[in-house]
Specification:
By secondary structure, the chain is an alpha/beta fold. The protein has two domains: 164 residues, Alpha/beta knot; 72 residues, tRNA(m1g37)methyltransferase, domain 2 (Trp Operon Repressor, Chain A). 28% of the residues lie in helices and 17% in strands. The chain has six helices and nine strands; from the N terminus they run E-H-E-E-E-H-E-H-E-E-H-E-E-H-H. Strands 2-1-6-5-7 form a five-stranded parallel sheet, sandwiched between helices. The longest helix is centred in the C-terminal third of the chain and has 19 residues. The protein binds adenine. Adenine binds next to strand 5.
């Protein structure tokens, strides 16, 4: 299955380099992922190509206009949309999920990435930080935030979504780097990794990793994952499947 992302942005050049680089760049070249980048300004109606305007009611900054965004959505969905009043919104058109990036959205995480990776078509509207006309929400399935901080625009958030979702699509990662051992996959942070040299400035690789004993290596890694998670993101442990013995270890770490 090919997944297609369509990104609606005021800064199309922003995407030129990231989508040609690394794992995602390779997947795009191979046709496993398709990414269309659309300039919202191409869907404006006036000669100045106005895509934002001052907010009604006053206040600082500019607000992204509703018509160019909806016209862009219509064009990429190749499907007409009635005006919002009493009309069917474009939500779910062609099975597409329409996402607006926004610091006010629900927090994007590994589970959200997995859900999106099961879809064939994802449309991402990059909001600007000053705001987007609220009527755009009539056409949006989901508002996503990539964290509790404010970016100047949604482009970096859109790239984070394409990258995190794209790498979960079959065939995007090679077998060697499969996502099965990722942090979050089993509800825990990943265990620490080492590669050559065995000793760097007196710092040694843990001997168990050189032992060749895979059962011991697995259990060391599991224990390290639990310790890392306990120290850095203890809230994740509530939802992680753990044995009674592991829960006891966590309690002893928490006691200090
Ligand atoms: N736009 C501005 N800040 C953002 C954030 N944290 N996540 C998603 N989109 C944004």
């Amino acid at each position: 299955m090919t997944t297609r992302f369509d990104i609606l942005t005021l800064l199309p050049d922003f995407f030129l380099s990231p989508l040609t680089q690394g794992v995602i760049g390779r997947a795009v070249t191979k046709g496993i992922l398709e990414v269309g980048v659309h300039n919202i300004r191409d869907y404006t109606l006036d000669k100045h190509r106005t895509a934002d305007d001052p907010p009604y009611g006053g206040g600082p900054g500019m607000v992204m206009k509703v018509e160019p965004i909806v016209r862009a959505l219509e064009a990429i969905a190749k499907k007409g949309v009635e005006p919002p009043e009493g009309a069917q919104p474009l939500q779910g058109a062609d099975g597409a999920k329409i996402i607006l990036t926004s610091p006010c959205g629900i927090k994007f995480n590994h589970n959200a990435a997995k859900e999106l990776a099961g879809l064939g078509r994802i449309v991402i509207i990059c909001g600007r930080y000053e705001g987007v006309d609220e009527r755009v929400m009539e056409f949006v399935d989901m508002e996503l935030s990539i964290g509790d901080y404010v970016l100047t625009g949604g482009e970096i958030a859109a790239l984070a979504v394409v990258d995190a979702v794209g790498r979960l699509m079959p065939g995007v990662l090679g077998d060697d780097d499969s996502s099965g051992h990722d942090s979050f996959t089993d509800g825990l942070l990943e265990y620490p990794q080492y590669t050559r040299p065995e000793v760097f400035r007196g710092m040694k690789v843990p001997p168990v990793l050189l032992s060749g004993n895979h059962a011991e290596i697995d259990s060391w890694r599991r224990a390290e994952s639990i310790k890392h998670t306990c120290r850095r993101r203890p809230e994740l442990l509530d939802a992680a499947p753990l044995t009674d013995a592991e829960k006891a270890v966590i309690e002893s770490i928490k006691q200090g």
